[in-house]
User: Fold these one by one.
Assistant:
Number 1:
Amino acid sequence: MIVFRSVCKTYKLGLLKKTTLAVDDLSISIPTGSVFGLVGPNGAGKSTTIRMLLNLIRPDRGEVLIDDSSVSDGSFLRDVGYLPENPYLYDHLTLRELLQFAGRSCGLSATVIAQRTQELTEQTGIAHALKRRLRTFSKGMRQRAGLCFALLHDPSLVILDEPMSGLDPLGRKMVCDLILDLKQQGKTVFFCSHILSDTERLCDQIAILHQGRLVHEFDSDDLAEFRSGERCLEDEFVAAVGQDTVQKEMPS
Amino acid sequence: MAGQRSKWLWLLIVLLLPVYAQLHTGSWAQRAELRQSQSVGFLVPSQFSRVLACGYKGLLADYQFLRILTFFGDRSLNQQPPTAEDWDYFRDSIDVITDLDPWFYDPYVLTEGLLTWDAGRIEEANALLAKGVRYRTNDWRLPYYIGFNNFFFLKDHAAGAEYIMKAARLPGSPSYLPTLAARLAYYGGKSQTAVLFLKQMLAENSDERLARRLQLRLLALERAAQIEDALQCFRHDQQRDVVKLSELVSSGYLESLPEDPYGGRWGILKNGRVFSTSKFVEKKKTDVE
Amino acid sequence: MMQRVWALALVTCKEGIRDRSLYGIFLFALFVLGLNIAVAGFFMRDLGKVTVDMNLAALSFAGLLLVFFIAINLMAKDIDKKTIHLVLSKPFSRGEYIWGKYVGLLLVILFAQAVLLLFSCATIASVHAMYPNYFAGFSWLVFFVAVFFVYLQQALLCAIVVFFSAITSTSFITLIFSMASYIVGISLEEVVFYLRSQAATQEVVASAALQRTLEVVSWLVPNFAAFDLKLEAAHGLALDWTRLGVTCGYGVMYIVILLLLASLIFKRREFN
Ligand SMILES: Nc1ncnc2c1ncn2[C@@H]1O[C@H](COP(=O)(O)OP(=O)(O)OP(=O)(O)O)[C@@H](O)[C@H]1O
Ligand SMILES: [Mg+2]
């Protein structure tokens, strides 16, 4: 169970007291074992939300809880896999060394690491590049390597920041299958994406974030309607985001 | 198109190269002229250079030393006799170098080689060497140089003997040093010091042949010292100097005149000091002195 | 915990060793060593001293380059390029991150110094063979002890780099601060003792404020001059083992305290 309880985050830009409100009074709760999708325009605060969930940054107000304990104690990390947006991996390591590092830091044994490495790289389609240095990887290959890095220790909570960005159509399908796989294994998946059709297909729960605020939430009933074609997520998205922009502009 | 442009670039480079070559030789020639006309080099005082060295004091000392070497090398190559100013620069450089690394031996050798014989600045050389003596506590050569300077240049036998004795006490010093020191001490009128020095040398010495020689010298010096003591008493009691040494025996200050183990005859110098015609040198001795 | 620290250290070390700039630093050091062989003949007697001087200077200067460029780069790249997000999403505590990185930097420097030491020994041995009469004061033991202290000095500097990387956000500021710390630390002793001797002879009475400032600075910045055994090694002077022990302990204590402070500060830091 992941709970955001009226979370706010403001970035301070330099010494000039200029601030950006990135996340404003966000409250969500995500049950264990479900797939949650966060969508929203660029700069909506999706990555910020994810960083708060990983305790990389701290909320100004409110709290983030995983299974009823605050994320700030860090103990939940053992069971978390994270793919950052635009993952930048170490330049001079080979993929195998990177995955070895991922396994060792989670306390896996060498045989388990080797086995998982083989499985995951085959699944993500970069088994051929295991011996290559990461600096020679293309954007999509890096994305795949990042996925392997996140999933290596078989975590029960998977957090993916734009997992499809930079991937070819086959890669997109691979990610979708991967997420469905994880769902089937009863894992919790928290991801954000700009590809609404995939989000719609994969998720049990979707939230639209706009200018740091939660403007709309869809539960599994709404999603069923989307899938049956009665409603369209795209239209709802445009409506929610466009409406909000108008609202915001009025008072100022 | 691109090929055309890079052709022009190559042409430009080929045209510029001779100009560069011209300027290069010109610049080096200018520098050479400048270095000749420069009377003295630039020197950072040691309290600053020790800080500026940033932990590379030894290396900076090496560099400074190379500079001073080339400076005087240039001078002699161009047959320019160093001026007083040059010698000041030399002394200050060595001072800075030995402040940076007081254990560095080469600057002391250079000082002894140039500042004494060429510049005639014995006191300054001795002052620099004295710094070396303070740090290179196990090196007999530096006190030996100072002793030599005192003895040879300054005619200060007492000080010279003191330094040579100091050198003789240090490990690795040649075996002739103690006898040389003792003799110098004798001529400097300090027989008693020389006796003490030899006793100490004997106590520390394990070499048979050296011990025999030292004992002989010690005996002679002890006897000379004995006569000197008697002379002193005589002078004290009678308020005058003896005319002949036998007077000491006849008036009871000595039971008998001791024999010089080197076989010489005792005499008195005008200044009241005791000497022996043997000069405390064994007849067969071939030591370099 | 040790396993995680070690894993991160290994990754950092590999990342550092495979960096191209390492070869540049190697080339520089080898150039100095070659220069040593060329220049040795210019000196009259103390060839051993000059050789040791140049070798230790090459080792320690290469170490400085290593710390100021490779170590700072290794620390900064993690934060600049957000690789740290990947690392901290694994079960690393912030303290473990700091220690892992630090051990990794130590390994990089150890590796580079070991390679250079090999070359350095070869240089000394060959100059020794060329001019066997002028190595009276030379002692391998003192030389190796001096090399160890050069390494310790760089370990200290690494701790300073890690500390400043933990509290500042740009590598340039880290570079400036750690360079400044080094320069202050290496020259502080000389200035303090100079002022003291001046005060004793009453030639220049340094203001009380200046003296107090220096006193404070001497607590904050490690006295790098204490780790400088270049002169001792150059002349094969006798080593005072208790002094070395105290210096060693002083350095290790400083490193531990500084890194603990760094991890405290790092805990409060945000990575966005
Ligand atoms: N390091 C930072 N310093 C200051 N402001 C930031 C920083 N990172 C993000 N912001 C601001 O916070 C807001 C939210 O940014 P965030 O990266 O969370 O957006 P996002 O939803 O992930 O966008 P995208 O879809 O482009 O990835 C934006 O207005 C952005 O300008
Ligand atoms: Mg984002």
Number 2:
Amino acid sequence: MKIAVTATAADFDAPMDLRFGRAACFLVVDTETMSWSVVENTQNLNAAQGAGIQAGKTIVETGCTAIITGNCGPKAFRILTGAGIKIVTGAKGSARQAVEQYKAGELQESSEANVEGHWI
Amino acid sequence: MIITVASGKGGTGKTTVATNLAVAVGKGTTLLDCDVEEPNVHLFLEPKNLRKTPITTMIPVVDQDACIQCGACSELCHFSAITLVADELYLFPNMCHSCGGCVMVCPAGALTEGSRELGELEIGQWNDIELISGRLRVGEAMSPPLIERVKEAAEGRELVIVDAPPGTSCPVIAAMNGTHYVLLVTEPTPFGLNDLKLAVEAVRVLGMPFGIVINRADAGDDRVVRYAEEEGIEILMSIPYSRKVAEYYARGRLLVEAMPEMAEAFGGLVEKIRAAVERGTR
Ligand code: SF4
Ligand code: SF4
């Protein structure tokens, strides 16, 4: 199974990034082999508006079935859930630890956006 | 002549200055409340004969059956207001800037122009003064188009006073844009000066003539006065801080009606601004 996690650097052992739309980068992880690859989020860091939407689009295009992150706004939430992607929150530590927590069933799937949207 | 009354932050007495200025001039004045997120001029000047008109803005409407998922609209929109994600088209109307580009670019004719309500335009009268204000719908974020509409409603008037939103962001620029003079209201405190500097920077970028009104002038120190001297900015008026002023303010009363010296000072303020606009001072 392929899942994504927001990370503060392009490294599986880097701390998780609690931001979704403005996350430093996304790591796409194969949960069986724990092999990972990086998906950049650079454009979004500078976008004036719609970072969450664009990040949502990026994640949908990776073909992941779940995303582990901290805070997800309503627009990104709409896109992710619309594509059937689970939004998983409550993880702590590094990106690797977050994925391990997910595999161990320690994390919650969120059923609604947990932060206000940014407008402009 | 259009005068904008602005301030780097809320609570400096911006609306007090705008309303008293309008009343001091009286007949023939139009007062615009462009603080559309929190209009409050009506608390000081209760409007008569109020007429309300809904204000809408254009948004695209999609015919999902006609859409061929080509992504042209999504690529064009800078605001992610229309986004194609894995063959699913998402619309986020409150992020749309109404440019109409997506409708034009759609090769399948799947997009048409719809509309969405931004808020209301309210036009009323207080004695000899015309009051025009905008009120943004709760939860709405796109205030600049509504502010534009409020200003359009006052086109051709002789003397227009604009009560701008607080701060220095997009809505404030929208309110200042196209006016002749900006009056920056501040307080003589460290925070007041800090916000004033930000406001001055914004006005200078727009290249408009401006001056300062110091509110609660004797409740702080001389830092704003020194700053104005260094920068060569005219201080047009100082409103003293007294219990009397505070009481009038708290009761929503007008300073110009309660204190004759204030009526005179505000009357003089308009003349100073007129002179500055004619000189074209920066
Ligand atoms: S009208 Fe302009 S801003 Fe609005 S969705 Fe279409 S392209 Fe985007
Ligand atoms: S441009 Fe028209 S056809 Fe293409 S994705 Fe957008 S709505 Fe659909």
Number 3:
Amino acid sequence: MAMRSALGRARGIGSAKDGFHHWWIERLSAIALVPLTLWFASAVISVAGADYATFSAFLAKPWNAGLMICFICAGFLHGKMGMEVIVEDYVEPRCVQVAVRIFLNIAVYVLGVISVVSVLTVAVRG
Amino acid sequence: MTLLEERINRGGPVSPHLQVYDMFKLTSFLSIIHRVFGAGLLVGTLLFTYWIASAAAGPQAYDCAMNFLGSWFGYLLVFGWSFALFYHMCNGVRHMLWDTGRMLALKDIYQSGYVMVACASGLTVVAWVLGLSL
Ligand code: HEM
């Protein structure tokens, strides 16, 4: 250990490949999520406890459906990327980490697509 | 051998090893909670998807979902999710201010920490007061 140079020790233990891109997309989605979350909170407040007719009328407005879909996309993408960082930090060995990441990706995309399709279904049915 | 070196030798993850921090200093505590709430929010999206998909499934499924969400347990989950969301949002803004190199002195970190907790708590209270009264 002591005989190796700092560079030699650093090589192979960290990624200098797609780290920045991951970090950047995580920030972009976080920035988008600030206004989207404030909108989402006000939206939920306005339909809290509402019956089906009220809620579907709410989603039938293009602005509401559109912003809801933006919130879903930004939230799921950001949450997935954040969770990947957590998994990279704590889950070992490597083979388990890869398995967890595969599961995470599939789960998030499935839930995300179901959510978007649900919004569209309600919006179109009115 | 330090913990970091030990982990490097094993080829495993090298950060952030919670054991080396004093976990209950305000600085590290708020940071750990940011991560815990981030993960919790992602798990909580299951609840969101259930809500929105139930509406897509039709009025009956929607009523059933609203019954669950309106139960004390449903309220508990939604309350937890709302506080986690406001906390993580406010602290996320704080994170991104740090990313620009601002407010990194220890004094600022404590100060913005208190402000952040106050904002998150305030937003949660206001949201619930409005939600329950409107
Ligand atoms: C509401 C607006 C939000 C903002 C401004 C925001 C901001 C951030 C920022 C800046 C980070 C990076 C923290 C770091 O550098 O350690 C982060 C991490 C994370 N976020 Fe968010 N976030 C938001 C919403 C969400 C939502 C809705 C979810 C879940 C679906 C989520 C899940 C996560 C996760 C899992 C992490 C990783 C935590 C970590 O690495 O410690 N965030 N968020």
